[in-house]
Design brief:
By secondary structure, the protein is mainly beta. It has two domains: 18-244, Jelly Rolls (Sandwich), CATH 2.60.120.1440; 257-523, no CATH class. 6% of the residues lie in helices and 49% in strands. It has three helices and 33 strands. It has a 15-stranded mixed β-sheet that branches. Strand 16 (165-168) and strand 17 (175-178) form a beta hairpin. 41% of the residues are buried. It comes from Methyloceanibacter stevinii. This is FecR protein domain-containing protein. InterPro entries: FecR (IPR006860), OMP/PagP_B-barrel (IPR011250). Residues 47-129 form the FecR protein domain.
């Protein structure tokens, strides 16, 4: 660590609140004409000013650290900390120069750390950020943690959810963009005693330059506890990751979402007819967090393709246990919007506990089934018997359309689940699984979806296995709703197939387009 400082500020008296110490300073640092020593106390409302040669690191008693660079000005306005509850508040004013903040216990709490700047206020939660206020403009880079939130003087809020992105205020209009090597170079040069060249840097341990301060063991341990041993590694990883960073515009006022998704399956009637339900339609899956009730709305719910059959089915499932629900009600509606008379409805839904893809634990999915009779009038002796034996649902926190990125691209990889109905299986329905990939342009609001190597997990016939399915197509978002759709086509073995897909982007609570869910279907 190359550290040096000059500290000027309010008088320190017996009633002042001690919030931290100068944990690392340059031997040439002075305060009020007196040389600063390691262990110099920092007090409430004390101004930390540095000149062209000065850098200081302040360790606060909650484990947070502020590293103040050359030609900088930082004031610790407020510090409140309850060590028993590990809660409190830090408020600082940063008016010029450069600064790095590494959060301690207070930063883990929402609203715990606020940095006031000439352009607005910055809130940092559970992480590490650094910034520079210079004549060329102001930037703040998010290096690690949960989120960095900036509130402008006009009241507009900009949130950076993903490390490796920078809030750039240089143009006067806040923008969020990927952090560049130049951003890091600019700040590191100010935070060190010499110009820092990031080219060819490795994370191997190197002996410090001769002008580095060797800290006493007690303070060295405090620094390790506060900042961890991977500060340099985190910064270098940001540089190395720039070439692979997915560009997303994460300018947000909030993340608004509902728990929802999609459902599809195959309906079978007592005449031996089969019809896909939901797979070529934008179906709805809703989960009520208060009552744990699942509502699944499926289009084209009839085994027979006759126009007189149901056009819409609304299935409600009530909880039996954490991962199981029972069918509590079922409404069927004809093509004119009139309800059918439904009798003997039974069924259930199940949540699968396996994740659909690595890191996708924010997406829920499972299967459902139902058996029922319906007719045009009560006590109809010719009521239609119908069943859905292998239906599927998938759900998540669907991001509001206004919160989706408007620039950049993304790629997604995961799993496609479904039911295979092959007449060579004598009407048996088997579970299938394959790979799902999608590339998306947020600026163009379109992308490519593919489902590959989709095949039966098992076959009820010893000498026959359904052919492997491969389909793809272009998806687009035509309206102002978080819902894309498109046609898909391809081959099931040597047989051409076609169909469609619908989907939405879901959030993991930090990233507005962290994942994709949807339904699909294809047939010969």
């Amino acid at each position: 660590m190359a550290l040096g400082a000059a500290i000027l500020g309010a008088p320190t008296h017996a009633a002042a609140n001690k919030v931290g110490v100068a944990a690392a300073v340059n031997p040439d640092a002075f305060s009020g004409g007196k040389e600063i020593r390691i262990g110099k106390s920092i007090f409430y409302n004390e101004r930390i000013s540095t000149d062209a040669n000065g850098v200081v690191q302040v360790l606060l008693v909650d484990g947070s650290t502020f590293t103040v660079g050359k030609n900088s000005n930082v004031v610790i306005d407020k510090f409140v900390y309850d060590p028993n509850k590990k809660t409190g508040e830090i408020v600082t004013s940063f008016s010029k120069g450069s600064m790095r903040f590494i959060g301690g216990k207070i930063s883990k709490n929402p609203g715990g750390v606020t940095v006031n700047t000439p352009d607005g206020s910055l809130a940092i939660r559970g992480g590490m950020a650094q910034g520079a206020i210079t004549s060329r403009g102001t930037i703040f880079s998010f290096l690690f943690g949960n989120e960095m939130v900036f509130k402008s003087k006009s009241g507009k809020v900009y949130t950076v959810y993903q490390p490796g992105y920078t809030l750039d205020l240089s143009s006067g209009v806040p923008t969020i963009r990927p952090t560049t090597a130049e951003d890091i170079q600019t700040i590191l040069a100010s935070l060190s005693n010499g110009n820092t060249n990031t080219a060819g840097v490795t994370t191997d341990n190197q002996p410090p330059p001769q002008n580095f301060v060797i800290l006493p063991q007690d303070f060295q341990q405090m620094i390790i506890d506060a900042t961890g041993t991977r500060i340099s590694d985190e910064i270098l990883q940001q540089i190395l990751a720039l070439q692979e960073t997915t560009i997303e515009q994460l300018e947000e006022t909030s993340i608004d979402f509902t728990i929802g998704g999609y459902g599809s399956g195959i309906a079978h009637d007592d005449y031996g007819n089969y019809t896909t339900v939901g797979s070529k339609y934008s179906t709805d899956f809703d989960y009520n967090e208060d009552s744990d009730v699942i509502t699944l709305t499926l289009h084209n719910v009839e085994g027979s393709p006759q126009p007189s059959g149901p056009n819409l089915g609304i299935f409600k499932f009530s909880p039996v246990s954490n991962n199981n629900w029972t069918l509590s009600s079922l409404r069927l509606i004809d093509h004119s919007g009139n309800p059918f008379y439904v009798t003997d409805p039974t069924g259930g839904a199940e949540r699968r506990t396996q994740v659909m893809c690595p890191g996708c634990n924010f997406i829920e999915w499972g299967e459902f089934h139902a058996d029922y009779k319906y007719s045009s009038y009560p006590n109809d002796p010719y009521a239609m018997q119908e069943d859905i034996n292998n239906g599927w649902w998938v759900g998540g926190a669907v991001t509001a359309f206004k919160d989706l990125p408007t620039t950049g691209t993304a790629t997604y990889s995961g799993t496609a689940r479904g039911t295979i109905l092959d007449y060579n299986l004598d009407g048996a329905q088997v579970e299938g699984r394959g790979d799902l990939d999608m590339s998306w342009s947020f600026a163009k609001r379109s992308g490519q979806l593919s489902i590959s190597d989709f095949k039966a997990i098992s076959s009820p016939l010893q000498n026959y296995t359904p052919p492997t399915l491969n389909v793809s197509g272009t998806m687009s978002t035509p309206g102002s709703v978080n819902r894309f759709s498109g046609d898909i086509s391809g081959m099931a073995g040597q047989i051409p197939v076609s169909g469609g897909a619908f989907g939405s982007f879901v959030t993991d609570g930090r990233r507005p387009a962290a994942g994709v869910i949807g339904n699909w279907g294809a047939k010969t």
